[in-house]
């Protein structure tokens, strides 16, 4: 699974992109998440992308998940390599707790180039008006299945 968050302006209109590939054939894309998240910083958007991805794989009942992100901040904090800024403490805790619910889950840092497709999806999402205004974001998150 490839995850990316994007913010125009930092903070600004933000979105998340998540690409989930078949574990047996990494070229087969089985799900895309392209969601706007309203106004956020880039760090918050990166965490939101990871959390959306984790929620999606839990919904899909996947047990073995390799997650790839180009955010060194998110990867390092969730993997416990270094501490966190106050603005992302809640995100880190939520991400770590969701990650623990997956039987075999790894989170690895990749280059921007390796994550360019998820990044393009996140940038696209940042330009879409959020559908959850005034409501519960979790209830209104839209996930499209490709198969």
Q: Care to describe what's here?
A:
- The chain is of the alpha/beta class and 147 residues long.
- Helix content is 35%, strand content 29%.
- The protein has a six-stranded mixed sheet with strand order 5-4-1-2-3-6.
- Helix 1 (42-59) packs parallel to helix 3.
Q: What layout of secondary structure does this protein have?
A:
Elements: E1 2-7, E2 12-21, E3 29-40, H1 42-59, E4 64-69, H2 72-78, H3 89-100, E5 104-109, H4 116-126, H5 137-140, E6 144-145
Parallel strand pairs: 1-4, 4-5
Antiparallel strand pairs: 1-2, 2-3, 3-6
Helix pairs in contact: 1-3
Short recap of the structure:
This protein has 147 residues and is of the alpha/beta class.
């Amino acid at each position: 699974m490839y995850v990316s968050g994007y913010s125009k302006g930092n903070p600004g209109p933000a979105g998340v992109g998540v690409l989930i590939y078949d574990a047996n054939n990494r070229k087969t894309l089985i799900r895309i998440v392209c969601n706007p998240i309203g106004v956020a910083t880039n760090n918050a958007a990166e965490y939101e992308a990871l959390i959306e991805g984790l929620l999606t794989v839990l919904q899909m009942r996947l047990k073995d998940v390799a997650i790839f992100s180009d955010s060194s901040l998110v990867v390092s904090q969730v993997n416990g390599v270094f501490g966190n800024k106050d603005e992302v403490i809640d995100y880190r805790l939520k991400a770590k707790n969701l990650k623990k619910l997956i039987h075999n889950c790894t989170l690895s840092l990749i280059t921007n180039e390796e994550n360019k497709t998820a990044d393009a999806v996140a940038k696209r999402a940042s330009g879409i008006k959020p559908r959850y205004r005034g409501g519960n974001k979790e209830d209104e998150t839209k996930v499209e299945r490709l198969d």
